[in-house]
Design a protein that fits this description.
alpha/beta; Rossmann fold; five-stranded parallel sheet; 5 strands; transmembrane; transmembrane helix; SGNH/GDSL hydrolase family protein; SGNH_hydro_sf; membrane
Length: about 280
């Protein structure tokens, strides 16, 4: 019978334990390596997916922005279709740079409030604050007073306040019995020349005061002014084509003095101007 020494048994068990331990260590190391490789692969895939998603997002954002600009440009082209090219270019330029087109309305006391209404209507038409409408109200000044005493201050505005468009309403009612028809007409040319000499890129427009519901001779002066402005080659905004022909109907659009427009009269005036600037005529 073979005899095993106790020491040999202990040595055999020790070798077995070492081998098992070594296998477990190897398995543990392989598990760690495998897990690390798995997570590295997963992280790489996640990063790659994130880059693709980010690129897709940027592409979609760029496409949306491009579409938005195209739609905005198309809208501007539509709204300015009937405007003079120089004015159309001003609006295009301002729109492309998120700037504003500055409109200055020079009126007497009978034109108060029209600028504010025009501002509101243009915002609605264009869907943004593309225009800034400013009213320069000369009160009871005659044409001569305006030219001799107030025009220079307007022409000396700082650059940020200088107008792109001037809409001048001759002071026919203020001039009545104070300034002759010929001098009132001459002031149109002088004001036009001063503005265009000072601001070479300016768009200068003339619009009439509204017809009187009381005095035909005033209406004749207004009609003569229209002929004069056209003969001088100055753009004339004839909103009086929308004004009632009959005296009784005109009185519904004016206050008691027969010529200062009431709210309904201002609406007729403003609607015409809005149509002009948004090519809806």
């Amino acid at each position: 019978m073979i005899q095993y020494k106790e020491q040999d048994v202990y040595l055999g068990c020790g070798d077995l334990v070492k081998k098992v331990a070594l296998v477990l260590v190897i398995i543990f190391i392989l598990t760690i390596i495998g897990g690390n490789m798995f997570w590295n692969h997963k992280l790489s895939k996640t990063y790659a997916d994130a880059k693709v998603a980010d690129k897709t997002h940027h592409t979609q954002t760029a496409q949306k922005e491009k579409m938005r600009k195209w739609q905005e440009q198309s809208k501007i082209e539509h709204l300015t279709a009937r405007l003079p090219e120089s004015l159309k270019n001003k609006i295009r330029y301002a729109s492309s740079r998120n700037d504003v087109v500055k409109i200055m309305m020079i009126v007497g006391s009978d034109g108060t409030g029209v600028a504010e209404q025009l501002q509101t209507q243009l915002n609605k038409s264009y869907g943004s604050d593309l225009f800034k409408v400013n009213e320069q109200n000369m009160g009871q000044s005659t044409s001569l007073d305006f030219y001799n005493k107030k025009l220079d201050s307007i022409l000396s505005l700082r650059k940020s306040d200088q107008p792109d468009v001037v809409i001048y309403t001759p002071f026919i009612y203020n001039d009545d019995h104070k300034v002759s028809t010929e001098d009132s007409e001459a002031m149109i040319s002088l004001v036009y020349k001063n503005f265009t000499d000072k601001y070479s890129q300016l768009t200068f427009l003339v619009q009439p005061p509204n017809y009187s519901a009381k005095y035909d001779y005033i209406n004749e002066r207004i009609d003569k002014m229209k002929t004069y402005a056209k003969d001088q080659g100055i753009t004339y905004l004839d909103y009086l084509t929308e004004w009632p022909k009959k005296i009784k109907d005109r009185s519904k659009l004016t206050t008691e003095d027969g010529h200062t427009p009431n709210n309904q009269g201002k609406k007729v005036w403003t609607t015409y101007l809005t149509s002009y600037f948004s090519s809806e005529k």
